[in-house]
Design goal:
The protein has 253 residues and is α/β, with parallel strands linked by helices. The protein binds nicotinamide-adenine-dinucleotide (NAD).
Length: 253
């Protein structure tokens, strides 16, 4: 396979950058074997639309179905390993004086790769909380036949600690992500279809504030036409090439 080509104009802009911010979506974990929302899931889950299981109404209607769906995805995430794209972002974090990584992913793979200070816009599939009060649950499940299990203090069903469609994002995480987008010299939008709001507005905020915005995605998205650079390909191939381009240009300066 040929190495991904990084435009020299982009490398020059990166060499000048001090404040870099990144938004990642499900696509960066695709090469780790975690399906994106737009991939068809086979077998057990093929008759369900994932987006329709990711709502408070779905949980209200059928808590067991939603619980089982999330346990199934949780197992996939735990079995997956960070890929070359996740690891390249760890390297980028070391290069720039200010680096902020916001992710829409709930899989924990950025943290497992070694990224520091990950801003998780949509929570974590690896954690649980009370479905009524939001009280965290960090224990092992009570031995009960009931599914979902109940929070031992509140008595209500447990649910995954993720942000469902129609729910409000964590205010502090959003504020930090928005600030990073406003202040960035360079903004990356990686592996996201740019359809889920408000996350999709972050690259636009960066653009309005004169950042160079780089999209990395094998396919065209709703944001592609606005991007300063659209790099078509897999994050696990383009990001390591980008790190290499920056490091080798630095050493020849
Ligand atoms: P999405 O499924 O809407 O879009 C995924 C994007 O990734 C697509 O544009 C696709 O072309 C691109 N892509 C596929 N393979 C890629 C690769 N190898 N490299 C780079 N890009 C690649 O995902 P989204 O935009 O993140 O929005 C969906 C929502 O679903 C998010 O809110 C997220 O929380 C949730 N989600 C999370 C996970 C996860 O944690 N891994 C998985 C599925 C869905």
């Amino acid at each position: 396979m040929l190495p991904a080509i990084i435009p020299s104009e982009l490398t020059k802009r990166l060499l000048l950058a001090r404040r870099v911010a990144v938004l990642t979506g499900a696509g960066i974990s695709a090469e780790s074997g975690v399906p994106t929302f737009r991939d068809a899931l086979t077998g057990l889950w093929e008759k369900y639309d994932p987006a329709e299981l990711a709502t408070p109404e779905a949980f209200e209607r059928n808590p067991k179905l939603v619980w089982d769906w999330y346990q199934f995805r949780r197992e996939l995430c735990l079995a997956a390993e960070p890929n070359a794209g996740h690891r390249a972002l760890v390297e980028l974090e070391k290069i720039f004086p200010q680096f902020t990584l916001t992710t829409q992913n709930v899989d924990g793979l950025h943290e497992r790769a070694g990224s520091q200070n990950v801003l998780r816009l949509h929570g974590s599939i690896l954690r649980y909380k009370c479905s009524r009060t939001g009280q965290p649950f960090e224990d092992s499940f009570p031995l009960t036949a009931e599914t979902p299990p109940r929070h031992p203090q509140t008595g209500h069903f447990l649910r995954p600690d993720v942000v469902w469609f129609g729910e409000v994002l964590p205010v502090d995480v959003w504020a930090l992500s928005e600030q990073a987008a406003r202040e960035a010299d360079v903004y990356f939008t990686i592996g996201t279809s740019a359809l889920v709001h408000p996350a999709a507005s972050l690259p636009k905020i960066a653009m309005q504030n004169e950042a160079v915005v780089i999209e990395i995605n094998p396919t065209t998205t709703a944001f592609s036409a606005s991007a300063s650079f659209s790099l078509r390909g897999k994050a696990g191939e383009i990001l390591p090439a980008l790190v290499q381009a920056v490091l080798s240009s630095r050493s020849t300066d």
